[in-house]
Design goal:
With 218 residues, the protein is an alpha+beta fold. The protein has one domain (2-211): Bactericidal permeability-increasing protein, domain 1 (Super Roll), CATH 3.15.10. It contains four helices and ten strands; from the N terminus they run H-E-H-E-E-E-E-E-E-E-E-E-H-H. It has a five-stranded antiparallel sheet. A hairpin with a 7-residue loop joins strand 6 (107-117) and strand 7 (125-135). The longest helix is centred in the last third of the chain and has 25 residues, at 187-211. The radius of gyration is 20 Å and the shape is elongated.
């Protein structure tokens, strides 16, 4: 811990905070954040500083347990990931934890989605539809413990969807259309569960590309 405390003392805090909370860097100073992360982990400070404005993933599975459903986004296209920004970075000296968060505005997800609906003591039913959603804002947060040492590849990220996405859905068949049109009142829960499963990949790709390379396999 002496190395961590030394870094926090020599780098002036940028914002007023409780005595145990230290923010060593302006959020826009990625070089400063990089030095802090590298000093308290095994991450490589040599980064690409690049995420394409659009990229694709062949298949991205995720669970929505509230709905007893499993999902796969096939040919998932992600846009505007490169526009995410660091929105929080601090150390809590009393817990020896660090908190890092990014704010992503205008993220777009587009895919052909397979939804597998599970039923108790019954056969699964599969629905397929084209999906495109634009998220006004998602905040993704991780808690990093120096004892690991700090390793973003080993911690679970949390995604908070501040506003429901603007979306378009194109059912592939009549049964899917009937299923999707029954009740949209729980859409906020579905989107929050979907975003939470995407959170790990999104923040790890961002951190490994812009802040410090932890070597995550995402």
């Amino acid at each position: 811990m002496s190395q961590l405390l030394y870094l926090l003392l020599v780098l002036p805090a940028c914002f007023a905070a409780p005595s145990d909370i230290v923010r060593p860097c302006p959020y826009s100073n990625y070089e400063c954040i990089r030095r802090n992360l590298a000093a308290n982990s095994y991450c490589n400070p040599q980064v690409s500083n690049y995420i394409p404005s659009q990229y694709s993933i062949n298949a991205f599975p995720f669970e929505t347990p509230f709905f007893n459903a499993s999902n796969v986004d096939n040919n998932l296209i992600i846009r505007n990931h490169n526009k995410c920004l660091v929105s929080e970075f601090f150390y809590n000296l009393s817990t020896n934890n660090a908190v890092l968060a990014i704010r992503c505005r205008g993220l777009v997800f587009q895919s052909t989605r397979k939804l597998v609906q599970h039923y108790p003591q019954a056969e699964d039913v599969i629905y397929t539809y084209d999906y495109s959603g634009t998220y006004p804002e998602i905040i993704i947060t991780v808690n990093l413990k120096p004892a690991n040492p700090m390793n973003i590849c080993r911690v679970k990220a949390f995604a908070y969807v501040t506003t429901l996405p603007i979306y378009n859905i194109d059912p592939k068949d009549q049964s899917t259309q009937n299923f999707l049109s029954t009740d949209l009142s729980y859409l906020n829960i579905f989107e929050r569960e979907a975003a939470d499963d995407r959170a790990n990949e999104l923040i790890r790709y961002f951190v490994n590309s812009y802040l410090c390379n932890f070597g995550c396999d995402f």
